[in-house]
Design brief:
The complex is a heterodimer of chains A (245) and B (434). With 245 residues, chain A is of the alpha/beta class. Chain A has a single domain, classed as Rossmann fold (3-Layer(aba) Sandwich). Chain A is 49% helix and 15% strand. In chain A, α1 packs parallel to α2 and α5 packs parallel to α6. The longest helix of chain A has 29 residues. Chain B is α+β, with helices and mostly antiparallel strands and 434 residues long. Helix content of chain B is 24%, strand content 23%. In chain B, the strands form 4 sheets. Chain B has an 8-stranded antiparallel sheet. In chain B, a hairpin with a 5-residue loop joins β7 and β8. In chain B, α8 packs antiparallel against α9. The longest helix of chain B is centred in the last third of the chain and has 17 residues. Classes of the chains: A alpha/beta (245), B alpha+beta (434).
Chain lengths: 245, 434
């Protein structure tokens, strides 16, 4: 039986991923801020086939609470086959530009807290000597673009941290999987006009599960973001400065 | 990817903003314009559109709340799709009490249109199997409605076209099955009288009955077609327990409709003659039986960029045969014909909604490529026949009926109006209230 920990469990991508694991009869531990929504999701996952679903509330920006929640998850699950860190917000770039406090608060939510959670999970995974530590970063972290570079900077920090952690934990037999979704049609992106580049959360969730099964290193979801970001990363600065992205 | 804001007929085109609802405990969002719940956009016309307003998209409001496998009672959020429900319940020996011809509808949408299926003569509409629903209004009030609690709100919301508030969750009584299989029989009939004979002799012993008729046939062959009757089959342990895999998809809308008089006549003749024997018996999986068109994703694109119009009417039992013949002749002489013409006799079980469409009689469903005024004139002509007979036209499939006709078909509209949420509206409702 698969034992799965999901942090940021009320996000659309995380919920869709949890459903995939529920269908496989996993034992799941959910972590998020809102207890009512956690209960709704837990009920749903049980009906969809999860053997057991437990949950704990956590505000990821309360760094001192991380250890306790992770300890609890470990106790409930016994061991962890897959840990997925999926929380995040989509900051308003203009608001971040006009207020340093907003910018740093968003950086804390999307960058610092994620790094702290990865760091807190690493020793247990290392000691266990197996398992998958997956984290949702973003294509936005591949290059800072004027439209959302605060978010991009936080995700870049996550991707880089995950890269180093991957190298370290590989020696212990633990896979660190960096997930880089492109545009996903979720409540977080409700204000965007949707085009053909937008993916559904369940398609992204299936990609996450596949990546975790294989112990992949870095995956773009859907796959076509890999060539797109390759191009964007290689646009020379003298051109990049003149365009808007 | 997001197709929100379009109806299945891809006509008319509406512009509206979209707000995704994912938490059923929250109040309705504040907006400056009117709002309308939007499920999976399978209504054909404009009843799921709110031009210049806002749609409350419920695709993320799709959690299961409780499933009692002993009694077959399912509680779920309103955005849950029938397809997801079937995947959950069929392996546990339960089936939907009533299902329309596509499984890609949401529970909320199905209730708001009080949908019917091939078992109407036995089970009535879906609304009869809804044990309870929660209605969230823009004033923040929540009502758990049933036939006993707030019965008037229950009756207004079933078939209420999403106008009475947001359905957040519902409780549905499922139907027991022994297997995912169906025992089916397909009978060829030569004319409309043949249909009515088969229908009358089948209603007692067969839970599901429906006919396809060749709308391009004329003269003596008018109304010829294939009659399907079926029951849920006992367990077939030797059969593999899954539906055949499907990969077909219409990848884009061709520049012009692929449905024209030529292809239509050819298709209809071929389809009618696909079966040489008078009667064919088979055991099939429930998916191709109930949802033949779901096998081709985005099939609505074959009608090209202008989309198409569905027309579904019901005419009273007395004189039904004459009336259907008259409709078929009008369609035949218009040359267009209909690609899919579906004919069924409704039973006499009363529909629980104030604005429910099903009522005793024969119901005919047709679809027409949108050829502008030509199509509109043809449908107006059909309306004249239906209205004179005392029948009705199905709002879920409509994009064009006049307000006069609507009020004639649905005399309860006036008492229904008082239950409309003051912040809710739809393109359909504004059109028929003009």
């Amino acid at each position: 039986m698969l034992r799965v920990l999901i942090i940021g469990a009320t996000s659309a991508i995380a919920e869709a991923t949890a459903r995939c694991y529920a269908a496989r009869g996993a034992r799941i531990f959910l972590v998020a801020r809102d207890v009512t929504r956690l209960k709704d999701i837990a009920d749903d996952l049980r009906i969809r086939g999860a053997v057991a679903v437990d949950h704990a509330t956590l505000d990821v920006n309360d760094l001192s609470a991380h250890a306790g929640v992770i300890e609890k998850a470990w106790q409930q699950l016994g061991s962890i086959d897959v840990a997925l860190i999926a929380h995040g917000t989509l900051p308003d770039q203009l608001a971040c530009e006009s207020s340093v406090e907003t910018a740093l608060a968003e950086f804390a939510t999307n960058g610092t807290s994620t790094i702290a959670l990865l760091a807190a999970l690493a020793p247990g995974m290392e000691a266990q000597g197996r398992g998958v530590l997956a984290v949702i970063s973003s294509v936005a972290g591949d290059r800072g673009r004027q439209s959302n570079y605060l978010y991009g900077a936080a995700k870049a920090a996550v991707s880089t941290f995950a890269s180093g952690l991957r190298q370290r934990l590989a020696k212990a037999g633990v896979s660190v999987v960096t997930i880089k979704p492109g545009f996903v049609d979720t409540p977080m992106t409700r204000n965007f006009r949707k085009s053909a580049l937008w993916a559904k959360p369940d398609a992204v969730a299936r990609g996450i599960v596949r990546a975790a099964d294989r112990g992949s290193s870095v995956v773009y979801l859907p796959w076509f973001w890999s060539p797109i970001m390759l191009v964007i990363k290689h646009i020379p600065e003298f051109i990049f400065k003149r365009i808007k992205l | 990817m997001s197709r929100a804001g379009q109806s299945w007929g891809r006509y008319p085109v509406a512009k509206q903003s979209i707000i995704s609802i994912s938490d059923r405990h929250q109040e309705l969002p504040a907006t400056a314009v009117t709002i309308l719940p939007y499920g999976n956009g399978r209504s054909y016309g404009d009843s799921c559109l709110n031009d210049s307003g806002t749609l409350l998209h419920t695709s993320h409001l799709d959690r299961f709340i409780r499933l009692d496998v002993a009694t077959g009672v399912l509680d779920c959020e309103a955005g849950a799709l029938f397809s997801e429900i079937l995947d959950l319940i069929v392996p546990q020996g339960w089936f939907l009490p009533v299902t329309p011809g596509t499984k890609f509808v949401t529970v909320g949408g199905a209730i708001a249109n009080d949908v019917h299926g091939k078992n109407h003569h036995r089970a009535g509409t879906l609304g009869r199997h809804v044990l309870e629903l929660e209605l969230l209004r823009s004033d923040g009030s929540r009502r758990a409605c049933s036939s006993i609690k707030y019965p008037e709100w229950f009756a207004a919301t079933i078939g209420g076209l999403g106008l009475t508030g947001l359905i957040t969750r519902a409780s549905i009584q499922l139907r027991r099955i022994a297997s995912p299989w169906m025992s089916t029989e397909v009978h060829r009939f030569d004319d409309l009288a043949g249909f009515f004979r088969l229908s009358e002799s089948s209603d007692r012993d067969y839970e599901y009955t429906v006919a396809w008729i060749d709308c391009a046939a004329k003269g003596r062959a008018l109304g010829r077609g294939l009659f399907t009757r079926a029951n849920h089959a006992p367990a077939h342990p030797e059969r593999r327990p899954s539906a055949p895999a499907r990969h077909l998809r219409v990848p884009f809308a061709p520049p012009i409709s692929l449905i024209n008089p030529l292809t239509l006549r050819a298709f209809n003749a071929m389809y009618y003659h696909r079966q040489r024997q008078r009667t064919v018996h088979a055991t099939t999986h429930y998916e191709p039986h109930f949802y033949p068109l779901d096998g081709i994703r985005d099939w609505n694109r074959i009608y090209g960029p202008r989309g198409f119009m569905q027309y579904q009417c019901v005419v009273p039992p007395t004189g039904a045969e004459d009336c259907i013949a008259r409709l078929a002749r009008i369609i035949g002489s218009a040359g267009g014909g209909s690609f899919l013409a579906v004919l069924k006799q409704f039973g006499s079980l009363p529909s629980p909604g104030m604005l429910s469409f099903p009522r005793p009689g024969a119901t005919l469903a047709l679809d027409f490529p949108n050829n502008g005024n030509r199509t509109l004139r043809l449908l107006d002509e059909l309306d004249d026949v239906v209205a004179a007979s005392g029948g009705a036209v199905y709002p879920a499939k409509d994009a064009r009926m006049s307000g006069h006709r609507f009020r004639q078909y649905f005399p309860a509209w006036e008492s229904f109006s008082q239950y409309i949420d003051p912040r809710f509206s739809s393109s359909f409702w504004r059109r028929v209230m003009e």
